[in-house]
Amino acid sequence: MTLSITEDIRSITELKRNTNSVLDQLHKTRRPVVLTVNGKAEAVIVDAKEYEKITTAFNMLKLLLPAEEDIKEGRYTEAKGFFEEFKREKGL
Questions:
Q1: What is the Cα–Cα distance from 79 to 68, expressed in whole angstroms?
Q2: Are 12 and 36 in contact, with CB atoms under 8 Å apart?
Q3: What is the DSSP letter of 18?
């Protein structure tokens, strides 16, 4: 989802005047559109399906953060050691 500086930065005025055109571009390219007010970025609009993908990826990342912290803190067991201990405890 790379931003195209020449195509994906639009003013709020342009959005008001050409809403359908901006939305068509958004759906066609799947790239976000940066909306500006007085030349400064004010908001970003994203295609609904792309937003769902971003949200899903972000939620997955949040689930992985505790595991990464465990690894940093040394709270893990190598797979081989884990399975050996598991078999021993279960009498396998």
A1: 16
A2: yes
A3: S
H or E element, residue 27: helix 19-29
- Res 14: pLDDT: 96
Residue written as token pair 């937003």: 51
Which residue reads 């689930």 in tokens?
Answer: 63
Question: 39-48 long-range contacts, Cβ below 8 Å, gap at least 24?
Answer: 41/9, 42/12
pLDDT value for 61? 94
pLDDT at 53 over 80: yes
Which pTM was predicted?
A: 0.68
Q: What is the pLDDT of residue 4?
A: 87
Give the Cα separation of 5 and 52 in Å (integer): 24
Closest to 32 (Cα-Cα) out of 18, 56, 41: 41
